Amino acid sequence: QNVNAALSMVDESTPQNEEFLADVLQGLSQRNKTLPCKYFYDEKGSQLFEAICDTPEYYITRTEIGILQHNMAQIADLVGPSCDILEFGAGAGVKIQLLLDGLKAPRSYIPIDISMEILESSAQKLARRFPHVDIVPIVGDYHKDIELPEGFLKQTPHKKLVFFPGSTISNFTPEEALGFLARIRKLLAEGDVLLIGVDCIKPTHLLNAAYNDKAGVTAAFNLNLLDRIADTFDTNLASRHFLHHAYFNSQQSRIEMHLVSKRDQIIRIEDKTVRFARGETIHTENSYKYSLHGFKAMAEEAAFETNTVWQDEDKLFSLHYLTA
Ligand code: AVJ
């Protein structure tokens, strides 16, 4: 049976700029200014993120790929034959290719991402490489309720594998992460799987280096958010008047990324005004780091069973195999 026949492309992205503007103004009108990190990933931002993954300091991507490669035979045995794979955030498709190659005859791949462009280019590539897998992209924001075509997940008699790599879960607060895990759990039936990558707590200098690469790619990535705002709206906002700042907040077990105003400035965005004092920051991202047992405890609270967890030799990163 062809899954494509049952599903059409779901596009929830129509009022894009209105929502972007509302989020920007809301974030910048708070006492502690913030911007949502999901807006990093326009075309330029997605390219910069790929470049971050190639910096020597940013261990996350290459370490997770190594863990996947090293343990693929065991993962395939655990999953068994012909599963349906769901992925939140489509990325560039490198990790999913490893899974589609390594698993035993996966039936379908359903990437869910806010960027239609990323979905389309990655879906095309995968469709050519994996002609026997149904590729069913869905445009959607997994920060909100995940609207999957009605009945689909409950109907299929095949095992579902939700793949959530890259430690994207790090962007949620622990409270939100628990809620997110619980929502995924409700999409699943007994025996289904969540395969999730989670970055680990490690010495502070390694964490700080990973978000302050020498080549300045992470800085460019952070500052690009301001360029995106400047390019999208009528505003005098300019990224050259801000600095990248990232550090590990050990109390909260998270990397914080900020944009620091270099000077007192009054920013107008469309018909609104925002004041910055010199040194004031916009908090643009949190990236929470977990111990193995800390993450397992959260997964169990969300009604998952913790089956297996793999790490690299240096214990930088973890890949958790959770079952519903
Ligand atoms: C994609 C959220 C896992 O937190 O490491 C990388 C994003 N930000 N460098 C991370 C990111 C700055 C990344 N995640």
Automatic annotation (TrEMBL):
Keywords: Methyltransferase, Transferase. One of its GO terms (molecular function) is methyltransferase activity. Gene3D superfamilies: Vaccinia Virus protein VP39 (3.40.50.150). The keyword Transferase applies. It comes from the Bacteria. Pfam families: Methyltransf_33 (PF10017). InterPro entries: EgtD, EgtD_Methyltrsf_superfamily, MeTrfase_dom, MeTrfase_EgtD-like, SAM-dependent_MTases_sf. Residues 22-323 form the Histidine-specific methyltransferase SAM-dependent domain. CDD domains: AdoMet_MTases. GO terms for biological process: methylation. This is L-histidine N(Alpha)-methyltransferase. It comes from Ketobacter alkanivorans.
